[in-house]
Amino acid sequence: MQREQEGNREQMNDELSVVSEILAQLPPPLKGEVGEHPEGGSDGGLFLNMPDGQARYFHYGVKMQPRKEWLMNWKMLWKKAEMSEEVLLFCDHLTPALQQYCQQNQINFIDSGGNAFISVPGFYLNISGKKSEKVKKQTGRMSIGVMKLLFVLLSDERIINYTYREIAELAGISLGMVGKGFEYLADKKWYRQGRNGRRFTRQSELYQIWIQEYASVLRAGIKSMRLAGNIPWQDIVLQPGECWAGDVAGHELSDGYLHPETIKIFTPLSFTERWKTLALRPAPEGSYELIETFWGNAFRINTQSYALLTIAELVASQDDRSIETARMINERYLHAESAIIG
């Protein structure tokens, strides 16, 4: 339940980022303010200020690259829902043909270029002919949700062709985040859909980027606790769902090249329960560290994911010997583009 809630928060944050950027494209008299997230099936709600100074409430949806069929289904969905409030779509730049389709079918939208069609009682807006790059959300650094998605996709080449629901359970993210993650990857041309299913186009580059983004995007948001004690790491018995991190993982994957100075464990268990079991004690400068697992309960760490995670942790340490170990592990297991590792 907690992971599902975290996934939902990630999805909402991503959507709010997109909505904010697109709202900025509107003419100055029109200003939007995101309201409370509704209980219904929309992605959110906002108040849009009309030229007369009145604020009108809209349910909104976010779809970066909607196709005609999707627009038709979306229109039918809201028609059946019989909502009392108006509905507004936020999306990436629409082609002139899709803009015209929205106008003909009374689908209110604002795209990333500033094109817009809003037709509600007492107000009509039609802005067209504007061109735009993708919104920054699509071209900026990876979100936490995309990082989690990529971690499981890069661990096993078969997973990319699992169902969205299966992938969501493995990655510990929401179903909606899986779809948005694939949209992001497609926009970057990192994967393609072919007759035989989905496949990565530049997997080595993805390894490199994931390692590069790990410390600032993913690791910074993961719960962890530093501890002190005297138990040798060799005497620690890992519990189900746990794996070594940092130095110990580097030691294992480098055949003992790296001597562990800090002892880190990724764990899905309660920190309090775990440090008491290990006879450790909380200490900000301690050499032991518990790190909360960020993947789903259904996912099992394999050699590929272990190597990727270990390299990212070692590179994040900025220690010369750790980085040298990361290079060795990369050459043995991943073969990622090594610029970020050296």
How would you describe this structure to a colleague?
- This protein has a seven-stranded mixed β-sheet.
- The protein has helices at residues 2-23, 68-81, 96-104, 136-139, 144-153, 164-171, 175-187, 203-218, 246-253, 271-277, 303-317, 320-334, and strands at 32-34, 44-49, 55-63, 86-91, 109-111, 116-120, 123-127, 191-194, 197-200, 224-228, 243-245, 263-267, 281-282, 288-292.
- It is of the alpha+beta class.
- The two termini are 40 Å apart.
- A hairpin with a 2-residue loop joins strand 6 (116-120) and strand 7 (123-127).
- It folds into three domains: 2-136, no CATH class; 141-206, Winged helix-like DNA-binding domain superfamily/Winged helix DNA-binding domain (Arc Repressor Mutant, subunit A), CATH 1.10.10.10; 220-341, no CATH class.
- 41% of the residues lie in helices and 19% in strands.
Unreliable parts: 1-11, 133-139
Sheet of most strands: 7 strands, mixed
Taken as a percent bin, the fraction of beta residues is: 15-25%
Query: Total strand count, please?
Result: 14
Label the structural class: alpha+beta
Q: Which of globular, elongated, flat, extended, rod-shaped describes the shape? A: elongated
**Average pLDDT:** 84
Helix content: 40-55%
Q: From the alpha-carbon coordinates, what is the Rg to the nearest angstrom?
A: 24 Å
Going across the major beta sheet, what is the strand order? Answer: 1-2-3-4-5-6-7
Beginning-to-end CA distance, first to last residue = 40 Å
Helical region count?
12
Our count of domains comes out at 3
Tell me the series of helices and strands, N- to C-terminal: HEEEHEHEEEHHHHEEHEEHEHEEHH
Pfam family, one: AbiEi_2
